[in-house]
Amino acid sequence: MKLTDAATVIRSKNAGPLQITIDLMFEDKDRFDLARQSPSLSPSNLAGLYGLQQDSVQVLPFPQALAIKLVFDRRTVAGDPGDRDVYGTQQHGPLLGVEL
Fold this sequence. Notes:
Elements: H1 3-6, E1 7-14, E2 19-26, H2 29-37, H3 43-50, E3 57-62, E4 67-73
Antiparallel strand pairs: 1-2, 2-4, 3-4
């Protein structure tokens, strides 16, 4: 199953000028559990997908909300020259093709 079929919300935003967060929200526990247990959403896989070091990626499940928060370092400080996404709202794009 694709992440886009499992999650009802996939959105990214700044978490200050140095980090990005991506929120993944699910309609039911089965889809949440599928995503939470998927190797595709492991820190090592996400680091490869985003071209980052594994230790700069955090995967934080919130079972009570059926949500997963991904947190990772920005490659460019928000607003610096060369930053093409000041608000971090387009950073979820690489996840749209992920298979769980």
